[in-house]
User: Fold this.
Amino acid sequence: MRSPDTAAAKIAVFKECGIECAVTPSDMADALIRAAKAKGAKLA
Assistant:
């Protein structure tokens, strides 16, 4: 059982729910692109 108070546990729950997560602040743009592609959206 994982502790619900850790960042890793929270990220795991987000991913289980299909929510895209950026691992680091510098990954935020890539996470946005991954989420858009998953929804079939195109970013201009």
User: Anything to note?
Assistant: The chain has one domain: 7-39.
